[in-house]
Amino acid sequence: SVDKCCSSNTERKNCIEMAGNEVMQLQRRLAMDDSDTGRHSREFQPLSKTRKAQTFAGDAQSLAHLRRRFERSNFVSTRQEAVKKLSRRTPSVGKAYVVIVDAFSTGACLAYEAAKRGYGLIHVLSLEPSDELANMVPAHLRGALEWSKTLHVDLSIPMHQGAKKLADQLEKLIELHDGRLAAIFPGAETGVKLADYLSACIAENPENFGTTKLATNGTRLTEARRNKSEMGDAVRKAGVRAVRQLKATTWKPVQNWLANDWQLFDDHTECQLIVKPMESAGSDGVTLCHSPADVRNAIHNLVGSINGLGQTNEGVLVQEFLSGTEYVIDGVSRDNIHKVVAIWEYDRRPTNGAGFVLHGQKLLSGEHPVVQKLVPYAAKVLTALDLKYGPSHMEVKLTPHPDPKTRAENPQITDPCLVEVGARCHGAEGFWISIADDACGRNQCVAACEAYLDPNSFDKLPPLPPAPLYNAACIKYLLTHKRGLLKSIHPKALETITQLESYRGHEIFIKVGADVIPTKDCFSWAGCVKLVNPTDEGLQRDYNIIEQLCLDGLWDITE
Predict the structure, then answer these.
(1) How far apart are CA 556 and CA 116, in angstroms?
(2) Which of 19, 187, 254, 380 is an S-S bond match for 100, by CB 3.0 to 4.6 Å?
(3) Does residue 99 contact residue 124 with C-beta atoms inside 8 Å?
(4) Which residues of 65-92 are buried (b: 16+ CB within 10 A; e: fewer)?
């Protein structure tokens, strides 16, 4: 915490000054010519030496969070450079507005970026408000975003009717204040469908909303952009490889599929198959099955249960197991022109009885060998799904070649295969944003705003991440490996983490005195740490130290 690194008011003020300087340096760096692909000119300094406060979603945003933390401790900074909380906004004459559908997780960061550009914010909710969803707003933005208007979709009528009803409300709001509607953003996974329906409805008569054109992906393939079963079908129909799968709500059709397509006739025949909810996120409910009996049990456990997004699992997907390394491609699109802002390599491993626990994710440069396979493939997937506008968060595996003959002749040949894609920004509450800035000089939230709101800036946006990266960077997730009561978080172990050369900030998600469970998906992470280092070797060294502390030393859990 800031109190641990700053023991006096003078030191706290110095900390604010240093962070203010970081903001100015960031602004100068982002103003550099886009063609500059070299490393940052400023000397890399470990956070423990600079005494810079913990950051969360970027330098400027972090100052607002820092200011509020000081206020809670009866210390108030008077520096004008500190980012101020966004003032309460009311609809004003002639103002341009953006609609964010479900501004949870990184959707709140997207709203913040639009507000910094002077746009009024209108929040549309596709679900009933809940504590679970409210907790998905990044901590530094809770209470910082002020909405000109908040609207709720009518859940008692079909979605297309609900979208029309919302469009009528928005039209009256825009007309009343002589404003204009600039864009409709999907803020979180839950908002993808409604954002499509609402934007398509308004795009039919954009002049009623003060504009000549409104970006929309339409509704023809909305279900394919949200439902994982239809997603795979649409991609395969376009001649692009996607995982083999079957959608089901009961065991019987799956049993027939396993027998006919996989020659699995016995309950205990060894195999490797995945069962997952049709709509969820973050590996929630994803189950690796080793026999048809495991598949049957997974279906029984998932269908009808509540997923991590608070929705009922109405069905499951049974999929082939894809071996190989998993990558994430974070892109933005405008008029069917696709650009890649960041590529992450996932560190997924079997852990705590779950098959695909994410331990961390590392940014890759535009010159990495996998880029030439991943990027053209990703563009084909986006085109197949008719995703013409906005951000995308795509998970792809490089697997052994699907053709047995090719695989036998050259086992080193790999082939990209879609796991899934979200028609929204990278999630994780935006924790990754500042390290994306440090490594790539840009982040997906900024690029998404450019795609929707600033075509000239989008045109200047490079098609790939820089080569080389400005710094090596990753996120290390904090895992727990026991079930029980969290008695304490060992301060010495935590101090070891904060003193690492690569350390750039952390968040702890679990609370002392609470019951904890072994980490099996993103909803049971215990926390995360941001790491940035001038060398890959230094980054990996610090990553390994944190990994060991999670196993032994960081948590005091009574079973």
Answers:
(1) 42
(2) 187
(3) yes
(4) bbbebbeeeebebeeeebbeebeebebe
